[in-house]
Design goal:
The complex is a heterotrimer of chains A (251), B (315) and C (304). With 251 residues, chain A is α/β, with parallel strands linked by helices. Helix content of chain A is 35%, strand content 24%. The chains are: A alpha/beta (251), B mainly alpha (315), C mainly alpha (304).
Chain lengths: 251, 315, 304
């Protein structure tokens, strides 16, 4: 069996009296779309924070792309190929769409050092050419020069994805990409994620069950900081324990 | 806060201004106002010090309240250089910048692990540490400060004349502003301004935020050291009061009056505050009350933060 | 030597307790409202001047102390209602600028009213002599300060740890939004904390007045020490403020008294005489740096 892209072992974290994560085991195979679902407060975002290195665990290990990243900081994990998008749109409102994505390209180790103090960043043609490529991929061409602060909500979400993608990740963690989106925007986002799934492994945290069951190859269920099952969407839908703990008996 | 973009008309304006500044000593002499050449040098030096704080605070988003320590350390480094026979500006100034930058590296490495109110207090405390250190060092004159033996020279030319010294200061300020303007639009400037806006997002894009912050902090410290070395040469004294935290407060007031995060904010603020001081202090020794009330008015009538007041006029 | 160490240890304890009076109010202001207040030292200075003026007018130290503390509390109330209430919502830049302005104004105002010369404040005549404690002599007035400090610290501990208001204060420091959501009047609570903090400032200023010179600028140096205390103890923590105050008070006092002697015993004379005072004056900052290195949030972080 080949080694998984991401392999989390017995990850635990406690905040004062609250056990936020209890010995979570979680693996992501290269190429799959792996959805993480669970009721509000189950610890999904906390879990993502630990995987990306924003928070460090009390115990357990995280291996990514053949490396032990447990003790690495967030930017080191990004350099190793992990990217994330945020639940709340998190782009630079004072920069244009193009500048936002170029900044993301600039952060990559292969884009060269950013300890450059003299040449204007705008003279760095490569950054902007590559940024244009990601902008086109997410259908934002006509907004390229627009300030991110002036974009519609759906376009800001797309920009968020373009920036995550511009770091050329091996794995993309999407934290509730449909949050706050209307039905039309959701449909567009599902299409975009389907498109992205062809080039990158995706971990999808989402409440929109229709989207989850359409996009995911596998689904993991997190309840009260514990991972109660990982299976195909169909199997998860049928699992009585999941129904009891999460979907509710009436469902 | 907006990201910095240079504007063509401003470049033309600054070239014109530099022309006027070069001619200033001759103009003042012609009017019989030689006394004001020294005052003009003082304004330029404080403009440099305030601009260095503006780099850290306005561009880097780091609220340091210990910046005067770097300023004062530069002054002491220059005084010690001159006392030990190193007189050429090409040695004195880089040495002063190096010493101030090194102290900034130490302070930054410890304090940049914290945020918010903590960072403000810690930079303040470390700044005061440097102050108490020089006050208690008898070898450096203690409370009285360290007098300079003469003034530094530049490649064999003396800078004793007030006009020559003014031109040396002008050159230092001009080069520093050019560097800061380029930096703000270079890769590094992009990164530190983006970190100011949202550091977590930058970390998530793979930028080692701590290293960028620390570098920015050190550059700011070194430039403050340059200003301090110039001031010591102007006044002939490295005084402990330069390191005191109230001096940090004064630099901060300059930056805020001139515009936080605007390239020429420090320059403008130093000009306004020092001229205000010159005028008000002529009326009453208690002019600090007036200044205090003025600052309170600025704070209370700029509900979105002081910097927002200037957003419209500068763009 | 034993006499010296014992005496200096008591001095350190006394200094630490006075620092605690300043740091206690300040750490809560920082912790609960996330508001930086540079003018806390000015309240200490104004408090000392008011106590001195009232003591002179009434010809009694204790009446002066009570009047000065009450007047400073009133001033704190006015400041909170007119200025600080508006500052809580602002960014740190505005808070620093406004409170820096307050320092400028209060320093100049004090200079206008009382002049630039230090003002004398005499301790109560009955306490001016030394007292014999277990075979050695110690100034009676300093013992009274220690007793006052211990009493206030104990009272504050009971208030914060045991009372309902104290519970709200602790909750506010740990998580302000949650406390507001629970329907507690955080604004009223903060007015109370601020006024109480101002009163403690005046108490410290009044008690220390006879030992130190009451003069312009006395607030700033002590403000920095209070900051060091809070950095060491952790923002928003009363326990941290107490531990930090005692550490800073004793280390600073003992360092200044003993370090030069110790160095003289181990180093050549001229090296010791240069290094001694310099090292003693920055000892607490080195200590702070050390603690920061291992515990960036201080010894007792109030927030998880």
């Amino acid at each position: 069996m080949t080694e998984a892209l991401l392999s989390v072992r017995k990850l635990s974290r406690r905040f004062a009296a609250v056990e936020a994560l209890k010995e979570v085991d979680f693996t992501v195979e290269a190429g799959e779309v792996h959805a993480l679902i669970g009721p509000n407060g189950a610890g999904k975002t906390t879990f993502i924070h630990h995987v990306t290195g924003f928070l460090l665990a009390d115990s357990g290990s995280i291996h990514f792309a053949g490396r032990d990243v447990t003790a690495l900081s967030m930017h080191q994990r990004v350099a190793a190929g992990m990217a994330r998008s945020y639940q709340i749109t998190n782009v630079f409102l004072g920069l244009s769409v193009l500048d936002n994505v170029a900044l993301a390209v600039q952060g990559r180790p292969d884009a060269g050092s950013s300890f450059r103090f003299w040449a204007p960043v705008t003279a760095d043609r490569r950054l902007f050419e590559e940024a244009q490529h990601f902008i086109a991929q997410l259908g934002l061409e006509k907004h390229s020069a627009t300030l991110a602060g002036n974009l519609a909500h759906g376009d800001q979400r797309a920009l968020e994805l373009a920036m995550a993608l511009a770091t050329r990740p091996k794995m993309l963690l999407l934290d509730e990409p449909m949050a706050g989106a209307g039905p039309e925007e959701s449909a567009r986002m599902v299409e975009l994620i389907e498109h992205l799934a062809r080039q990158v492994t995706i971990v999808l945290v989402e409440h929109d069950m229709a989207a989850v069951f359409r996009l995911a190859d596998r689904v993991s269920v997190l309840v009260n900081g514990q991972l109660i099952c990982t299976a195909s969407p169909e199997a998860v839908r049928a699992d009585p324990e999941v129904r009891r703990a999460y979907l509710g008996d009436a469902a | 806060m907006a990201f910095y973009h240079s504007a063509r008309h401003r470049e033309a304006l600054s070239i014109g201004l530099i022309g006027v500044m070069i001619a200033l000593p001759a103009l003042l002499t012609a009017c019989g106002q030689e006394f004001y050449i020294g005052f003009a040098s003082r304004i330029l030096i404080f403009a440099l010090a305030a601009s260095s704080l503006n780099l850290v605070l306005g561009f880097g988003g780091m609220f340091s309240l210990g910046h005067a320590a770097f300023f004062g350390i530069g002054a002491y480094a220059a005084a010690i250089c001159l006392r030990s026979g190193i007189t050429d500006a090409l040695l004195v100034l880089p040495l002063a910048m190096a010493v101030a930058g090194l102290f900034a590296l130490l302070v930054g490495a410890l304090s940049l692990r914290t945020r918010g109110v903590y960072f403000i207090m810690i930079t303040l405390a470390f700044g005061q540490m440097a102050y108490y250190l020089v006050v208690s060092a008898r070898a450096w004159g203690g409370d009285d400060g360290l007098a300079l033996v003469g003034r530094m020279t530049f490649a064999g030319f003396g800078l004793h004349g007030e006009a020559a010294f003014f031109h040396a200061v002008l050159a230092c300020l001009g080069l520093s502003m050019l560097f800061l303007g380029r930096l703000a639009e270079a890769r590094f400037g992009r990164v530190i301004q983006a970190i100011r806006e949202n550091e977590t997002r930058m970390e998530a894009l793979g930028f080692p935020v701590f290293h960028y912050r620390l570098s920015c902090f050190v550059i700011g410290g070194a430039l403050a050291g340059l200003a301090g070395a110039l001031l010591a040469n102007l006044t002939g004294l490295a005084s402990p009061s330069l390191l005191q935290w109230t001096q940090s407060g004064t630099l901060l007031v300059m930056v805020i009056i001139g515009g936080v995060g605007y390239l020429y904010g420090g320059l403008l603020g130093a000009l306004v505050l020092l001229c205000l001081e010159e005028v008000l202090a002529g009326f009453t020794v208690h002019w600090h009350i007036g200044l205090g009330l003025l600052l309170l008015t600025i704070v209370l009538y700029a509900p979105k933060g002081v910097a927002a007041l200037f957003a419209k006029t500068h763009d | 030597m034993t006499q010296l160490i014992l005496e200096q240890a008591l001095n350190g304890l006394q200094f630490g307790l006075m620092l605690f009076l300043l740091a206690a109010g300040l750490t809560l202001v920082f912790g609960i409202m996330d508001c930086i207040n540079l003018a806390h030292g000015s309240l200490y200075m104004i408090g000392a001047y008011l106590v001195a003026a009232a003591a002179q007018a009434a010809d009694s130290f204790w009446i002066g102390l009570a009047t000065g503390v009450a007047a400073t509390a009133l001033l704190g109330l006015v400041l909170e209602l007119t200025l600080f209430r508006q500052l809580y919502k602002r960014d740190h830049l505005s808070q620093v600028l406004a409170t820096f302005a307050l320092i400028l104004i209060s320093n100049e105002a004090v200079r206008l009213i009382w002049g630039a010369q230090p003002v004398m404040l005499n301790p109560p005549a009955a306490l001016s002599g030394p007292l014999e404690v277990g075979g050695f002599f110690y100034p009676a007035y300093r013992l009274v300060i220690i007793a006052c400090g211990l009493a206030v610290a104990g009272l504050l501990y009971l208030l914060v740890a045991k009372s309902r208001i104290g519970m709200w204060v602790r909750a506010g420091a740990a998580n302000r939004e949650m406390t507001e959501a629970l329907g507690i009047n955080v604004q009223g609570l903060f007015t109370l904390v601020f006024v109480f903090g101002a009163a403690l400032c005046a108490l410290a200023g009044g008690l220390l007045g006879p030992l130190l010179a009451v003069q312009v600028g006395m607030g700033e140096s002590v403000l920095i020490l209070a900051f060091v205390v809070i950095i060491i103890g952790g923002i928003g923590s009363i326990r941290g403020a107490l531990v930090g105050s005692l550490i800073v008070g004793t280390v600073d006092t003992l360092g200044r008294a003993l370090l030069p002697t110790l160095l003289r015993a181990t180093l050549p004379a001229d090296a010791a005489s240069t290094l001694g005072p310099a090292l003693a004056s920055i000892l607490i900052y080195l200590l702070m740096a050390g603690i920061l290195f291992f515990k960036p949030q201080g010894l007792f972080p109030a927030r998880a």
